[in-house]
Queue: 4 jobs
Job 1
Amino acid sequence: MNKFAVIVAAGAGSRMGTAQPKQFMHLLGKPVIWYTLQTFLKTIQDLEIILVLPEAHLKTGHSIIDTTIDPTRIRIVTGGNSRFHSVKQGLSLIKQPSIVFVHDGVRCLVSPLLIDRCLQAAELNGTAIPAIEAVDTIRLGTRDSNKQVERGKVFIIQTPQTFQSGLLIHAYQNEYSEYFTDDASVVEASGIKIHLIDGEPTNIKITRPIDITIAQKILEERGLE
C-alpha cells in the first residue's frame, strides 16, 4: 500500500513570540521542520511527503527541502485558514489507497520507532493515534466552578495521527467545526472508532521558547546535528 505523510507547518506560531514562524527557527543550525522531514524520509523508504506551508514561506520551504536526503519525495502545498483546511489541502493530492500520517511539522523529535508503530497499527485497525497518559493532577473548569478529573482517564494526544486513506479523506468531506482540533476528532465525527497507541514523552510540540531549549538538549543527546 502507498504511504503518505501530510506534514502540517502552515501556522504563524504566535505563542512563540517571534516574527519568524517556529517551524523555521533553528535547532543546532538547522530549521525545526528539517528534522521532521528527515526522520520521515529515513524511516519509510517508499513514503511520499506533502508539506503544507504558509503562502509567504513557500520559497523558504523549497530551500529547506533541497537540503534533505531525498527532495524528490517531497511536494509543497499552500495551507488554509485553519489546521482543518490545511490538512484538507494536503489530502487533495492523494489519489490512491494509502496509509496517511498527519503530523505537526514542529514535532521535530518524533522517533522512527513511533512512526513504525503508527504504521502497523493503522494497517491493522484503520486508525492509530499516539497518546500519553497525563501525569499531573487535572481539573476540569466550567463557567462557574472546577472539579478534579480522574487522571488515569486523561490522555495527551500527539501526532503522527495515522489512518487508512479512505477513512480520512471521507471524514474531511465534513463541514468544518471548531470542535475539529485534530484529525482524530474529524474522523471520529464520521462514526469511526479511534484507536490509541502509546506515544512518547519526548515527542513534544515546539510551541513556546522553552521548547526550543528542551528540543536542543534532546537532539544533542541523540547525536542528531
Note: The longest strand covers residues 2-8.
Job 2
Amino acid sequence: MSVWSAAAPVLAGVAVVIAVMVHRHRRRALRWLAVGNAALLLSALAVLLIAVFDQQPAAGSPPRAVPAASQPAPVAAPAETTGSSGGGSALIAAAIAVAGSSLGAAIAVAYTGAAALAAVSERPELFGRAMVIVGLAEGIAIYGLIVAIILIGKA
C-alpha cells in the first residue's frame, strides 16, 4: 500500500473537519488555518534550507571521518564527473517551476473561468470560445511541468 492511499482518508477527514469548523466558527477557524499554514510554510522552508546547505562540506573543513574497514577500494574515476549538488538544485528548481506555474494557472483560471461562466450564461453560443480561453490559461501549468521534466532530465 502506498503512502498516498493510506493518507487519503486522513486528508479527507481533515478537510471535512476544517469545512465544519469554518461553517460554525468562521473567524476563529480561519485564524487557526492561517496559523497552521504559516507553520507548514516555515517547516517547508526549514527542509529546503537543510536540503540546500547540507550538500557538501565547506571548502576549508576537514573531510568526514570514515572508519578504515568501511572504506571502499579505490576505483578509477570516470572521464566526466558531475557534482552531486547539481542534482539537488535541479530538483528544487523543478519543484519551484511546477509550484509557480500551478499557482499562476490557478489564478488565471479563476478569473477567466468566472468571466467565461458569466458570458456563457448570457449567450450560450459562446461556450466553445470561452473554454478555449480557460484552456489557454491552464496551459501555464503545462509549461511549468515541461520545464520541470527538462530540469529533472538534466539532473
Note: The mean pLDDT is 79.
Job 3
Amino acid sequence: MNSKINWGIIGLGKIARLFASDLQLSENAILHSVASRDIEKAAQFSMDYQAVKHYGNYEELARDPDIDIVYIATPHVFHYEQTMMCLKYGKPVLCEKPMGISSGEVKRMIGEANYGKSFLMEALWTRFIPATEKLIELLKNKVIGDIIFMRADFGFRADPNPGGRLFNKKLGGGALLDIGIYPVYLSLLALGFPSDIKTMARVSSPEVDSYISMLFDYENSAKAILESTFEADTPTEAYIYGTNGVIKLHSRFHHSEKISLYQNGELKEVFDIKHQGEGYIYEIEEVNQCLINQQTESSKLPHSLSLNLAMLLEQVKDKAGLSSSKNI
C-alpha cells in the first residue's frame, strides 16, 4: 500500500458528496477514483472533489489496481451486488448502511470478505463520532447505574413521491431501513439484542413503511422505545434512563455534538463535543488505520455487530408485516 490510501467511491449522490468532502480532511488518504453510471456526473464529481480518475462503469473502478478501498454509497438494494463484486476483485469495502437488506446478504458478504481476507465494514458513521465514544465511556463507567429503559426517535417530513428513493420498494424504501436503523443501532449498542420485539407500522405505499414504532424487551427487564417516520419532523433525540441518572443525546442524536448528564433529578454535567467536518472523517480514519494495520474488520464495528443489526432489522420487519419482499 502506498503512503496514502487511495479511495474509490461507487454511487455519487448526497452522502457520497458529504463523504468526499470529509475525505479531504484526512492526511492518510486521497480520493483516487469515482464511478457513476452517468459519466458526466462522474466527471463533475471528480472535478468538484479533485479525484484522480472517474468512470462511467462500477466494474471499471473495482478493477483499478491503484485503488486500496471502495466506499459504496448506492441505494440499499445494490449494496450486496456491488460489495460482492468489489470483494471478488480483491478490493476492501466500506459499505453504506444498511450493509444488506437481509441477514442472508450480510452473511454472504462477510463470508466473501473472510474468504478473500479483505477488509469489510458497514458505514455506520454514528459509531465513530466523538459523542458516541463519550456515550460508550459513560455507560461503561455506569455513571447512571444500570439501564432501565431508553427512548430514541428519528423523523422528518419527506416528499411522498412513490417514485423517489424513500418510498420506492424496489430501492429498499421505508423509514425503518433509512433512518430507523439509527435508533435500532443505538439500542443494540446500549442494551444488546432484545429477547422480545413488538412493533406497529403505517404503510404509505405497498409494503413501504412511512412510520414505525418499536418496543424491545430484554432478559434483564430493560426496555427500548424507538420510532422512525417520514411523516413529521420529530425531536430526533435519545434518552437513556438508569437507576442513578439519565443521559440525553441532543438532536440529532446520531451525530450529536452535545450530551447532558442528569443525576438525582438535576443537571450534573453538559458535554459539548464538536465533530470535524460533516462527521464522516472518524469512520474514514478508522478504516484507514484498519488497512494500515492489515485488519480485515474493525474492533469498534465488527462483522458480528453488523450481522446482529441486520438480524434485528429483519425481525422488526417480520413483526411489522413488512417482509413479503426481500426488497423491503
Note: Residues 324-328 have pLDDT under 50 and may be disordered.
Job 4
Amino acid sequence: MCTLASDTFSDIVFKTDAEGFVLQASQGIEYLALNESNGRFPLLIPPRLFDLLAPEHVSLVQAELALAAAGNTERGWIEIRIDSGTESGRWYALRLTPANDRHGSDHVLGILRDVHERRMLEDKLFMARMTDPLTALTNRPAFDAMLEHVTTSGQEGCLGLFEIDHFRAINHRLGYDFGDEVLVGFSQVLRVVMRTGDTLSRIGDAQFAVLFLETETHHADELARQVQEVFAGDLPAGKVTLPLSATAGIAEIGRCPNDTLHRAEMAMVLGKATGSGAVKGERRRGAYQPALPTRAAESRLKRAG
C-alpha cells in the first residue's frame, strides 16, 4: 500500500475507493489497523475504513463516504470512535472529500484527526456541571433537563421526591459536617435500593428525586417505602435523640414537567401533614441505630428489580 506524507500521527491522511478500501495512507494508519494477525509489521493488505470503526459509527461513515464519492464537496467534520488496533476506543474527527482525480474516479480523500483528549476533557466538564459534588448524584439542572425530556417525549413512569426530615435540626445540633454525612448516607441508601435504570438526583438542600421510567405507581411506592425503612433510625445528639427519617411523594409522569413536579411535591406535603409519607425512626428503634446513616447491615439490603 502506498503511503501519503503526514507531519504527525495525530493527523492521518488517506485515500479510499467508493467501497471504503484504503488505497493510500500516511504511516499512522498502521496503528489503527494493527491486529493479532499482522502484529506490528507494515500492512500488506489495505484495511477497509469501516473495519476500523466502532460499530455504532459505521452507518454514519458509510453515508458520508457515499456522498463524498458522488462528488459532494460540502462535507464537514464528524467525530467517530476507533475500534481497532492500538488506538481502540480513541476518538477521532473525520472529514471526507472527493479526490478529484484527473480520470474522474470516485476516490475519496480523508483526514482523521485525534480529538480524544478534548473529548475526555469535555466529558469531565459536562459531568462536573451536571453532578452534585457532595453526593455524586445528578444535580438540579440535570434533573430539570431529564424531566423535561421525559415528559415532552411521552415516556411513562413515576417521579419520586424525598426530603430528609428535621434536617435543619440535624445541622444545628450535630454540625454541618455531620449533616453532609447524612446527605451522603441517604444518597447511598438510594443507590442500594433503587434499580439500575432509575435516575437519582439531589435537587435541593435535603431534597432528592428519582425518575422511575416504565414503572407503575404501586411499584414506585414500594421502592420509596424500602428507602424510608432502610434510612430510618435514631441519631444521638447530646442528651436528646433525633429521629432520622425521610418523607416521600410519588406522582405519575405527565406531559408537563412543572405539573409532574408539582403533583409529586403535593404528595410529599400531604405525607408530611398526615405522617403517611414518612417511616419514623422510632418504628425501628433498636433495629437500626447508626453512628452514620449508612451503617445498616448490607445483608439486609436487596437491590430491587
Note: The first helix runs from residue 29 to 33.
